[in-house]
Amino acid sequence: MSHECFRFTVHGRVQGVFFRASTRDKARQFDLNGWVRNNTSGEVELIACGEAGNIDKLREWLWQGPKFSKVIEVESQRLPDNKMADMSGFEIRRDG
C-alpha cells in the first residue's frame, strides 16, 4: 500500500461551522495521522498522512465539509514521505 502526506488549505465559510472537529473525526475514520487548525486569515489548514486511497477520501470530503460550511477551494500540496514519521494520531491544533 502506498502512503503519502498532504497539506490542505480549505477556503470558504470554514470557521465557526465545526470544520476542524468534523475533519478530525473523518481523518480518524479513514485511519489518517496529522492535525487541523484555523488560520488567522480565515482558512482551515491541515496535514494528513496515511494510505493514498484514504487521503483521496478525505480530499473528497473536504470539498463538502460539515453541514453549515461552504467550501469554495481546496488547495493541496504533497509533502515529503519522511513527514509521516512525525505524525501519530489526528488532533486539532491551536489557531495559526
Describe the structure.
The protein is an alpha+beta fold and 96 residues long. The chain has a single domain, classed as Alpha-Beta Plaits (2-Layer Sandwich). 25% of the residues lie in helices and 40% in strands. It contains 2 helices and 5 strands; from the N terminus they run E-H-E-E-H-E-E. The chain has a 5-stranded mixed sheet with strand order 4-1-3-2-5, covered by helices on one side. A hairpin with a 5-residue loop joins strand 2 and strand 3. It is globular, with a radius of gyration of 12 Å. The mean pLDDT is 93.
Overall pLDDT, averaged? 93
Separation, N- and C-terminal Cα atoms? 33 Å
Strand order of the largest sheet: 4-1-3-2-5
How much helical structure, as a percent, in the residues?
25-40%
Q: How much beta, percentage-wise? A: 35-45%
Q: Helical element count?
A: 2
Q: Helix and strand succession?
A: EHEEHEE
Uncertain residue ranges = none
Tell me the Rg in angstroms: 12 Å
> Major sheet, described briefly?
5 strands, mixed
Task: Quickly count the domains.
Answer: 1
CATH T-level fold name: Alpha-Beta Plaits
* Basic shape: globular
Structural class: alpha+beta
CATH 2nd-level architecture: 2-Layer Sandwich
Top-tier CATH class: Alpha Beta
Number of DSSP strand runs: 5
Please provide a brief summary of the model.
With 96 residues, the chain is α+β, with helices and mostly antiparallel strands. It has helices at 19-29, 52-64; strands at residues 3-13, 33-38, 44-51, 70-79, 90-92. Strand 2 (33-38) and strand 3 form a beta hairpin.
